[in-house]
Amino acid sequence: MNRRAVEDRLDTLIRNNRVTIAITFPLVGTVLLIGAAEGVIPHWLAFNPVLLLGAVLVMRLPLIGGLAPLVNRRVAAGLGVLVLFSWGIELVGVYTGFPYGEFEYLIDLGPMLFDAVPVALPVFYFPILLNSYLLCALVLGDRMQSLPIRFLSVLAVVITMDLVLDPGAVALGFWGWEAGGVYYDVPVQNYIGWVISGTIAVAILTLTFDHDALDRRLDECEYVLDDLISFGLLWGLVNLYFGNPIPVVLAVALLVTLFRAEWFDFAGLTTTPSHLPLQK
Questions:
Q1: Residues β-bridged to residue 229
Q2: CB-based contacts of 109: which residues, under 8 Å, 6+ apart?
Q3: End-to-end CA distance of the chain
Q4: What tens digit of pLDDT does each residue of 192-236 get?
Q5: Among 87, 128, 189, 244, who pairs with 101 as Cys (CB 3.0-4.6 Å)?
Q6: How far is CA 179 from CA 8, 189, 239, in A?
Q7: Cα–Cα distances in Å, from 253 out to 78, 153, 249?
């Protein structure tokens, strides 16, 4: 089977299962994660790394399927650099406390690199960057042609997403900071670190992808941003359960932004968004 055939099969799979992938999986995942944190589900199921990573990969399918046709040698090389950067900056962070502060992983997330950082880290890291870029392209349109606007807007959304993610992850016990912090047990240093690492990562991303090709793909593929729906639902609900209002508001803001941009409607994700051409 050639690459085009694989991409077509993946595309069909995602289109036929948008509600399951974008809504059902994060809702079930929320129940399982909270149940694990509260100790009310069986030990073998609680935070099971195989189940956890499998579910995450399913929710990532829209992003994978949406961007797969754009992956050429340049993009593959750039993504490889991002993989190395994500591992490297996280290792530095775990061993030195720079740039995120003194933190450690507390839950088994599969094989660990040097017993410190999950090998699967890019699976969690890449979507923050790519979804941020795509959301900015969707909302800003032609203004994204300006490199300064593109760079600053994507960086701002990256940090916003981490303002949602980290409090929920800490509440669940995925990772934590030795001294806690003022923002739902997350230190300000963490977000200073995200400005530093995010600046580098967004720069790599900008050099990796052709902006016009990404913009065209955003018009052609109605599901490419569905992973952001999953993110907003899962982490919004986790933060709601643990009483973290600011992350909840930010998660809702991300979902409302998608809704206002007519990316999807709440009646059914199988409809074609009105910002897309009706004929391809």
A1: none
A2: 49, 52, 53, 118, 120, 174
A3: 25
A4: 999 999 999 999 999 999 999 999 999 889 899 999 999 999 999
A5: 189
A6: 49, 11, 21
A7: 30, 15, 6
Task: Summarize pLDDT for 29-79 with one digit per residue, the tens.
Answer: 999 999 999 999 999 999 999 999 999 999 999 999 999 999 999 999 999
Cα→Cα distances 137→133, 216, 227, 280, Å: 6, 10, 15, 20
C-alpha distances in Å from residue 190, one per residue of 13, 61, 100, 273: 38, 29, 4, 36
Q: How far apart are CA 120 and CA 109, in angstroms?
A: 8
